[in-house]
Amino acid sequence: MLRFRPHHFLCSLGYQGKGYSTRFTANMDDIVFGRLGASTGEDTQIEVVGVSDDICSPCPHRRGENCDKPDKIAALDRRHAEHLDLRAGRVIGWHEARERIRRRVTPQDLDVICEGCEWLDAGMCKQAVAKLHSE
Ligand code: SF4
After folding, report:
1. Which of 10, 28, 90, 134 could disulfide-link to 48, CB 3.0 to 4.6 Å?
2. From CA 102, how far away is CA 131, in angstroms rounded?
């Protein structure tokens, strides 16, 4: 089972190989392309957590179970958790997570729920949500 903090569901959907360091992207490649993108990836079970998770593990910004930008990350988590109705302790499959994003998130919503993220202006996360709606 994977462990994701709330905002990492959408980050995983939008991930296209860019990240904070070589170790970070290698781990993210393994999670997003290797596990969630595998033929059985939609069955992957993911536990929602309120601390650093499987994506944070090799991140150069991680400080133990927290982050060197704790206020920014807490705000991202709070907005994504409210928008997706996800709470710490919940276990959800990747298929259901994608359906939940499709039902509850539009590309324009990211301007609000992802405010402050340095990857927002790159556009790939909005594109991924738009693609999900078109499938
Ligand atoms: S804009 Fe940032 S926080 Fe929002 S989904 Fe993309 S990477 Fe995650």
Report:
1. 90
2. 10
Question: In angstroms, what is the span from residue 111 Cα to ligand 1's centroid?
Answer: 10
C-alpha dist (Å) from residue 73 to 13, 43, 53, 109, 115: 18, 27, 12, 17, 11
Q: Is the CB of 83 under 6 A from ligand 1?
A: no
Residue nearest to atom 5 of ligand 1 (CA): 11
Predicted confidence (pLDDT) per residue in 58-110, tens digit: 999 999 999 999 999 999 999 999 999 999 999 999 999 999 999 999 999 99
Cβ atoms of 54 and 2 closer than 8 Å? yes
Q: How many domains does the chain have?
A: 1
pTM of the model: 0.95
Cα-to-centroid distance, 80 and ligand 1 (Å):
10
- Ligand 1 pocket, mutate which of 12, 56, 114, 118 (most atoms under 8 A from CB): 114
